[in-house]
Amino acid sequence: MSSNELSLRYDLLNSQMNPHFINNAIQSICNAMTKGNVNQSINWLNRLSHLYRLVQKSTKSKLIDLQDEIEISKLYIELQRDLFDKGFSYSILIDEALKEDLEYTKVPPLIFQPLIENAILHGLKDMKRNGKGTLKISIKLEKEMLYVCITDNGNGITKTKKELNESSGISLENINERLKIINGTTSEKKLLDVRTLRCDAGIISGTQSCLRVPLIQI
């Protein structure tokens, strides 16, 4: 495939990153308003508006600042956390070697979001009422790559790959294909890995989704 064909393929994949999660959030906010939670709903709408502006800006570009991708992730996580009955805790750990260069480090837009969405809506869904859910995102530098892992403490992968693709609205293959294109089609590295975590006793302790994104700094 020629470089022009790869570029067109990448643009097509990028255009498919439809932020359907915003529509889902609006529906949840409307439900909250009907229950009389008006002030909180206004707060959610303000944050949702900010999130929407960032998403609109990001999906018009092939690459965005890692700083913006992290901001989108934070806004989305906090909005979903507030929409959970008793919330959940989350943390974002960033490699010290990257902290000063977040605005100069580039990643494909919304490359984290579908995996975060799966972790919250599928991994933590059974913890909506007990507030014991945890979500961890780590962003590390590893041999000229960004190694990004999204980990939850839920019930593991209970859906097939096809079901996860359909329920997220954004195909996991889409993420993998975009990563392959920016890595170079000859790359043999596993760029996207989604697996169930188990403790030493073999009991399921959550799900972990990891991405390997080439380090691009401008």
Automatic annotation (TrEMBL):
GO cellular component: membrane
Keyword annotations: Kinase, Transferase
Claim: Transferase is one of the keywords in the record: yes
SUPFAM superfamilies: ATPase domain of HSP90 chaperone/DNA topoisomerase II/histidine kinase
Any one GO molecular-function label of the UniProt entry: phosphorelay sensor kinase activity
Keyword hit for Transferase: yes
Positions of the Signal transduction histidine kinase internal region domain: 9-84
Protein name: Histidine kinase
Organism annotation: Kordia periserrulae
